[in-house]
Amino acid sequence: MVDDWIKEIKARIDPEQLGMILVHNGIVRASSKDGKHVRGMMLSFDKQKLDSCVSEFKRRDGIEDIRVWINQGTLNVGDDIMYVLVAGRFRTDVMPVLQELLSIIKKEIVKEEDVHPYE
Question: Phi and psi at residue 116, in whole multiples of 5°?
Answer without folding.
Answer: -85, 160
